[in-house]
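ok posting inputs for the adenosine-5'-triphosphate job
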Amino acid sequence: MKQAESMITVDSLVKRYGNFTAVNGVTFQVQKGEVFGLLGPNGAGKTTTLEMLVGLRKPEEGTAFIGSFNIRKELQKVKEVIGVQLQSTTLFELLTVEEILQMYGSFYPKHLPIAELIDDMILTEKRKSRIKSLSGGQKQRLAIALALVHDPWVIFLDEPTTGLDPQARRTLWDIVLKLKKRGKTIVLTTHYMDEAHVLCDRIAIMDRGELIALDTPETLVRNLHAASAISFSVSSEVDLNEWAKVEGVTKADCKEKEVVLYSDDLQLTLTSLIQTASERQIALEDLQTRTATLEDVFIHMTGRSLREE
Ligand SMILES: Nc1ncnc2c1ncn2[C@@H]1O[C@H](COP(=O)(O)OP(=O)(O)OP(=O)(O)O)[C@@H](O)[C@H]1O
Ligand SMILES: [Mg+2]
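and the output
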């Protein structure tokens, strides 16, 4: 079998809408059993990439393989081994959980036992309920159950937790980790950095149709050379260059009177900061320290926040 090690091989995929290039030459590989995240702001091209991989959109250039199957030439084979949960799924609102799963199961020559799937997705109490009466989290779990019905090798999840409350998000995280434990390969998109950090073995950061970084969450953050962020506010503006001179500072950011200093040596920088402030008689208010995150990685690489529209 071609590409024995990687379950997914993506090679220079391009998608254009008229003059606009939504995905501009994306290349990556996903190993068997890996949870792989596409992280990026709105409009980055995450859904478009995923839709090309599952055969819902045709790439203008490039190709991809799922296992040994070419998405351009062997789409039917591809569909047999993948399960897909899309960003906006319309379900048959009047069917019950059990009925829709039985219906989806009947599309395949072989399917997983429905009761087991329902149990797995924590929907046992809702099995006789109509879909329209389910909560957002329950609907997402049902969408995943539908994606799993034919026991696929690879599962694609497009923003599985967007719009869910914190508890429903955690439940979904547990489900993703459970599927990983069973050896499934999972590709998910998200714009939540905490989610990407918790779930993903590796993350591709996408921006404006391109991959701008690809690594484990830990390495992405470590490569910032700024393990810690120290934030505070001051009562009058101070030249940013002054803050950059504080010992150990690798980068200084300032929005009006709020300052963020990044450092690889928290203790050195804090000591030096307090000394500098007292020498110049500047009061540091609301002083806080935190560990750098993927959000900091994105800001560092693009100058923009992940959450900006
Ligand atoms: N059918 C289409 N016609 C024209 N442009 C499109 C079409 N579908 C998507 N786009 C554009 O392609 C770009 C990428 O969209 P895509 O849905 O892949 O982004 P995304 O990263 O999934 O964003 P989000 O986080 O909002 O889901 C966007 O600028 C979008 O407006
Ligand atoms: Mg999307």
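notes: Residues 166-181 form the longest helix (16 residues). The first strand starts at residue 6 and ends at 17.
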